[in-house]
Amino acid sequence: QVQLQESGPGLVKPSQTLSLTCTVSGGSITTGYYYWSWIRQPPGKGLEWMGAIAYSGSTYYSPSLKSRLSISRDTSKNQFTLQLSSLTPEDTAVYYCARELVVKTTTPRLRGQGTQVTVSS
Q1: In whole angstroms, what is the distance from residue 54 CA to residue 57 CA?
Q2: What is the sign, positive or negative, of the torsion defined by CA atoms of 13, 59, 93, 65?
Q3: Which of 96, 110, 87 is nearest to 39 (CA)?
Q4: Residue 41 has what pLDDT?
Q5: Environment class of 112 (CB within 10 Å of its CB; exposed 0-12, middle 13-18, buried 19+)
Q6: In this structure, are residues 80 and 94 in contact, taking their beta carbons and an 8 Å threshold?
Q7: C-beta separation of 12 from 18 below 8 A
Q8: pLDDT band for position 56 (cuts 50, 70, 90)
Q9: Which helix (H) or strand (E) holds 45?
Q10: Contact (Cβ atoms closer than 8 angstroms) between residue 22 and residue 73
Q11: Looking at residues 40-45, what average pLDDT do you find?
Q12: pLDDT beyond 90 at 43
């Protein structure tokens, strides 16, 4: 059974860079034609697809975040990572990592429990 677990800081300061890691267990991130994505939900708002990295290593980003977002992976650890720069309080959200057979979705069939990130000085 594949499981995803997000990890990272819960509090970051404005202008800093957020780094979150998703650790995948029970299956490899390089097989199965899956896309491994990051999704977030700001307080009181809907889910937002941020970007994804494919089983092949190709990356895809939301146009609104592309200038600040980078997604990478460490296949030896079966992890993929989000880096979001130039943070503002508007980046405060619950961040989820997810797996799906399509690049862009806010309703993946498999996702982690989510991690709260607050951007505040």
Answers
A1: 5
A2: positive
A3: 96
A4: 98
A5: buried
A6: no
A7: yes
A8: very high
A9: none
A10: no
A11: 98
A12: yes
Beta bridge partners of 36: 53, 99
pLDDT at 4: 98
Q: What is the mean pLDDT of residues 22-49?
A: 96
Rg (CA), the chain: 13
What does the block give as tokens for 84? 């979001």
What is the torsion angle, in degrees rounded to the nearest 10, for the CA atoms of residue 53, residue 107, residue 22 and residue 40?
100
Copy the structure tokens of residue 30.
């390089």
Token pair belonging to 117: 């990130």
Nearest partner of 63 among 45, 46, 77, 51, judged by Cα: 51
Comparing CA positions, the residue from 108, 117, 93 lying closest to residue 7 is 117
Query: Is it the case that residue 47 has pLDDT exceeding 90?
Result: yes
Q: What is the pLDDT of residue 34?
A: 97
DSSP 63: T
- At 31, list the tokens: 């097989």
Q: Which tokens belong to 111?
A: 């996702």
